[in-house]
Amino acid sequence: MSYNGLAKDIVRLVGGEQNVSSLVHCATRLRFKLKDRTKADKATLENLNGVLSVVESGGQFQVVVGSHVADVYKEITKTANVGAAADPSDEPKGSIGARIFEVISRSFSPLLGALAGAGMLKALLTILTMTGVLSAESGTYFILSAAGNAVFYFLPIFLGITLATKLGANPYVGGTIGAALLEPNFTSLLAAAKSTDFIGIPVILMDYSSSVFPVFISVSIYAVLEKFLKKIIHKDLQMFLVPMLSIAIIVPLTVIAFGPFGVNVGNAIGAAIDFLSTKSGILTGAVVGAGWTFLTLF
């Protein structure tokens, strides 16, 4: 298949590059933000060879092309002036709910390959140990286990980077906020006690490895804080003062409030599903099915 030809046809049928505010892709879909939806020819696109389907969701015009989406995206960005960095000033904003889900999905999209690869590696290790091919006490197992576990354990760091990027904040400060929750000096406090204090304010200690909610809350607040700080701090001082103040403010707020709240929300969802599963499989299926889109994102 000619990805170049397919790319040109897709851009033409969504209304041309002048109708595209931004474009990103996930594992199987090209996710367009269009200035004028009426200019897109959805029916023709759906019948285009190489396009599996077209979905309009979350304020996005999504063209499903399958596992070769990265190749098609690459050709589109070569031949048309579109992409994630395109000017979004005149794109429709959509509802608050749609915008929230868009932020969540775009934060996870760059990580899908790493998450899928690591998950499959963990599954392979399980099979190898169950069949006796590989000992769970061997060095080989521990090295491969580290490779499979890393992206999940350090998920707060990766999400800090991708979420801050989506929100227009410094991605490496976002990653630093996530990393602070996993830093050895902080995690070592868990071994000694269940709580500590920060300038006299009680801090409930929790394990933030593999967590999602705490970093989403903290980095979202950081993005707002960064914009505020840039308005009040002189440009010559912003390079070091804005990151310093952001980290010094957000990390303590996270471990004092955002983190425990986020962890408790995640635990509550898990506990609720466990409780329902012990009472009724049918009810569990209905509830989980109804919330599947939300649960899949998290």
From TrEMBL:
Stretches assigned to the PTS EIIB type-1 domain: 4-86
Keywords: Cell membrane, Kinase, Membrane, Phosphotransferase system, Sugar transport, Transferase, Transmembrane, Transmembrane helix, Transport
Superkingdom of origin: Bacteria
Alphabetical list of Pfam families matching this protein: PTS_EIIB, PTS_EIIC
Protein's cellular compartments: Cell membrane
Domain PTS EIIC type-1: 102-298
Transmembrane feature ranges: 111-135, 141-165, 172-193, 199-225, 237-261, 281-297
Membrane topology field: Multi-pass membrane protein
Protein name (database record): PTS transporter subunit EIIC
